[in-house]
What we know:
Elements: E1 4-7, E2 10-13, H1 17-29, H2 34-44, H3 56-64, E3 71-74, E4 79-82, H4 91-109, E5 122-124, E6 131-137, E7 142-148, E8 157-159, H5 160-174, H6 178-225, H7 231-252, H8 259-274, H9 276-282, H10 285-295, E9 300-302, E10 307-309, H11 314-324
Helix pairs in contact: 1-2, 1-4, 6-7, 6-8, 6-11
Amino acid sequence: xxxxxxxxxxxxxxxxxxxxxxxxxxxxxxxxxxxxxxxxxxxxxxxxxxxxxxxxxxxxxxxxxxxxxxxxxxxxxxxxxxxxxxxxxxxxxxxxxxxxxxxxxxxxxxxxxxxxxxxxxxxxxxxxxxxxxxxxxxxxxxxxxxxxxxxxxxxxxxxxxxxxxxxxxxxxxxxxxxxxxxxxxxxxxxxxxxxxxxxxxxxxxxxxxxxxxxxxxxxxxxxxxxxxxxxxxxxxxxxxxxxxxxxxxxxxxxxxxxxxxxxxxxxxxxxxxxxxxxxxxxxxxxxxxxxxxxxxxxxxxxxxxxxxxxxxxxxxxxxxxxxxxxxxxxxxxxxxxxxxx
Length: 341
Ligand SMILES: [Zn+2]
């Protein structure tokens, strides 16, 4: 027991560890990466009896343990009663953490291929073939594995929980820092403003042409009514001008993105890329497959004990280019070097 010792059917609350347990349940319930929470809580003192950080499976057992919500549960004896001790976490916090946990576990125990979100994106380090997902029945439970798809290799066979936990760790290392996102945002806004200026100039030109075409149409009609041109010529010119006016009107209508929409998109981007692990944990497994595929179209490589990217991910490249290449970075207003008058 890591945060409460059971003594004669009662729980002794450890004053140091119990706030850490409460925070752990809250953060897992918010969908934060289990690996991240486990490591940070270990650094703060949530450790096992040996003083070492809890293992991933021990951490899972802690989240699953009904004692923390004040219940004593023994499904095999059909027992589910309130303990004679105060619950450490609320029923709601416990449920939230376990709903998220169940969703993660479900995807690795299912029989459906869609529940192996890393399949197809992660490759075997020995032969380069993609991994596939498989489930096998153990003595008590189903166990799911990612295995090398190549029948003549089969070098990799890794428990899905293990590989998915390695992936969470990788995501934590790939998350983009706030300063880089600040630069990215400034560069996006600046590029957008430049495009707005160009679009405004073009629109002005189009409106001028539109006005001219409309005036010509009036003159043409006058001349026809004054019988200065015949009907055939009038029809021909009328059609030509009408077509021109239709096209110019379409071109003149502003179709660009509102600044607010752009800012919202950038904000979403921030939320996703500063904490990729949480984003991943909040997704359903089908969305997770798409998330992995779109973040790593070039694939990932595993030997069963580690997981790595094959090249710098596109989003790291996109967001750090502005930092490395000063010529391509549009300097945000207010940061230009000030020349003395
Ligand atoms: Zn292989």
